[in-house]
Amino acid sequence: ISVQKGDGPGPSAVLPRGGAPGIRFEKVVKRFGANVVLRELDFTVAPGERVTLIGPSGSGKTTILRLLMTLEKLDEGLIWIGDDTLWHMDKGGKRVPANQRHLHEMRKQVGMVFQQFNLFPNMNVLRNLTEGPVRALGVPKDEAVERARGLLDMVGLADKIDAHPSQLSGGQQQRVAIARALAMEPRVLLLDEVTSALDPELVVGVQDLLRDIARGSDLTMLCVTHEMGFAKDISDRVLMFDEGQIVEEGPPDRIFGEPSEQRTRDFLQAVL
Ligand code: ADP
C-alpha cells in the first residue's frame, strides 16, 4: 500500500495566518460523579505553540480537549481562549457560564480531530467539508466549495471529492477529517489520538500530513497521543500527566531524553 503524500499547494497557501490565540487553564476542576478527573489544573499554551499531552490512560487528557470543545462542562476554575473565557464573573464574584453567543464565538476558534474520524457517513467528501462552514458559519456555498477543494488538494485527496466515507481507507478518512476540521478555519487545533484507529501502514502518512500542517501554519495545537515519535516530532513542549495533574513538562528532547520524574520514566518505559 502506498502512502500518498499531499501533493497540493502546502498548508501555508491554504490556512489562515496570524492571530492564533493562546489557551489558559486556571485551577480547573472536572469531576464525573465522585471521580475527580482534573484537580485544580493550571497550564498555558502560547499563541501558535504546539503542545502534546502524554500520560497513562484515564489521566484526563481527552477531557481537557473536550472541555476546550465545550463538549464537557467544567466544575471549577476558568478556561481561557485568547482573551475570552468559557465563564464570566458576575458582580458578586460568582462564576456564571458565558452566554450562548459568546460560547459560539469561542467555539468557532477551535477545531478537533477525533480518533474515530466521525465523518458524516451519508454525505460525500465535499459535503463533509462544506456542511459546517455553510450551516454553522454562514459561508456562501461557492466559497465553501472552493476552500474545500484547496484543502482536499493539500491533504492529497482531490480525486476523492465525490466519494463517500465508506469508500475510503481509514487513513483517507482521517485526512478528510483533518481537512474538515480546517474547513471551519479554526485558530486552535485539537488532536485526540488521531492515529490510534489506523492500520499501522497508514499511520505515517497521517502523521506526516499533521507535521506539515504544524510547520506550515501558525495554529495553536494541543495534541494527545501515545505515539512518542510523533509527539517528539510535532511538539514545542510536552506535558506529562498523571491523575489529572501535570507531573512534569518541557521540550520533547528533555522529557523523552532525560525525564526528571519517576512517574514519567515508568510511563515512557511502558510505552516505548
Ligand atoms: P485519558 O484521555 O487520559 O485516557 P480521559 O480524559 O478520557 O483520560 O478520562 C479521564 C477519566 O474520566 C477516566 O477515569 C474516565 O473514566 C473518566 N471519564 C471520561 N469521560 C467520562 C464520562 N463521560 N462519564 C464518566 N466518566 C468519564
From TrEMBL:
InterPro entries assigned to the protein according to its UniProt record, in alphabetical order: AAA+_ATPase (IPR003593), ABC_ATPase_HisP-typ (IPR030679), ABC_transporter-like_ATP-bd (IPR003439), ABC_transporter-like_CS (IPR017871), Ectoine_EhuA (IPR014343), MetN_ABC_transporter-like (IPR050086), P-loop_NTPase (IPR027417)
Topology of this chain in the membrane: Peripheral membrane protein
Domain ABC transporter: 23-268
Subcellular location: Cell membrane
Keyword terms, alphabetized: Amino-acid transport, ATP-binding, Cell membrane, Membrane, Nucleotide-binding, Transport
Predominant location category: membrane
Classification via PANTHER family: AMINO ACID IMPORT ATP-BINDING PROTEIN (PTHR43166), GLUTAMATE_ASPARTATE IMPORT ATP-BINDING PROTEIN GLTL (PTHR43166:SF9)
Family: Belongs to the ABC transporter superfamily.
Name used for this protein in its record: Ectoine/hydroxyectoine ABC transporter ATP-binding protein EhuA
